Amino acid sequence: MLALTLSAADLAAARFAVSPLGHLLHGVNESACSRRSRLRSRWWATARCRVPLSAVPVVELVNLYPSGVVPFLTPHPGAAVETALVEELERLETIRMEVIAADLQRLPGKVPRVVADLRAGDEMSWRRVVDGVRDLFICCLADDWPDIARVIRADLAARSRALMAGGMESVLSGLHPSALWNPLWNQGTLLVGQAASSMVARRERGLVLMPCAFGRDSVHPLFMADRPATLCFSAGAHEQARGDGVDPLAALLGHKRARVLRGIESGSSTKALAARLGVAPPTVSEQITVLRRAGLILTERNGKAVRHTLTVLGESLVLTTYE
Q1: pLDDT per residue as tens digits for the range 82-92
Q2: Domains of the chain (ranges, CATH numbers)
Q3: In terms of CB atoms within 10 Å, which end of the chain has fewer, N or C?
Q4: Phi, psi of 224 (to 5 degrees)
Q5: Please, are residues 47 and 140 in contact by the beta-carbon 8 Å criterion?
Q6: Which of 75-79, 197-201, 202-206, 258-262 has the least mean pLDDT?
């Protein structure tokens, strides 16, 4: 277990942050936490076929760490709740080579060439890694990020309501079933895990809560010397964790209609949606007609162009049954 001691000042300075970089790295990591997420599994099943050659060293690098947390690639959220990927890449470009080399020295055994080059202080290799991260996001996650971000925003909305109703203590105690908030005078301790093994005291450094749509395990702490403690937690785990493997949206609408509803994302034509789902356009049109009559889809025509979007009801169904 990890016991994180937080002062009243830490709680007062606590904030939420969303990281595209963090999701990207979690998504390509083959940890048990990633594999247990149905959302991540659905995404990676198709995204892994689109990984560009320039990003292969990045995938190798991330999977050298069992937890998927590469110290020098760890997201460093800015002041805004949602940090743009371009800002995260700019921060990566400022990291000193000696810091990267020192972190990589801890990796045992045989390592891929990218690690050997970075250990040697090759700045060009590091620039290629940063470019590889950018290429990986563009090719594999950019199209899906709007939908993933909606899942995260829905989770943050629920956390914000808990914050207004019961304060930050209420938010912390609801992060995950394995997390327990133990209030003390003028401070408190967040217990994460099942067996006592370590204590971490952090006073007046603040706290960053980072939701992850790709995670399905407990709360993952990230401690870096130059920043507040960061806790990554599963977005919507308190509502979406199910052990029966049943897709609730498919159970409600049927598998085909559930795929169409999720596939529309932020807007799509019939032809593009059919290509995305790998089915014939007439099949998609048939399901769209039913979903439109149910008030889940809105269809707009501009000349010959047709664009389908989710209604408020349709988007609510996708958000609440995404996993």
Answers
A1: 888 999 999 99
A2: 1-241 (no CATH), 248-320 (1.10.10.10)
A3: N
A4: -125, 145
A5: yes
A6: 197-201
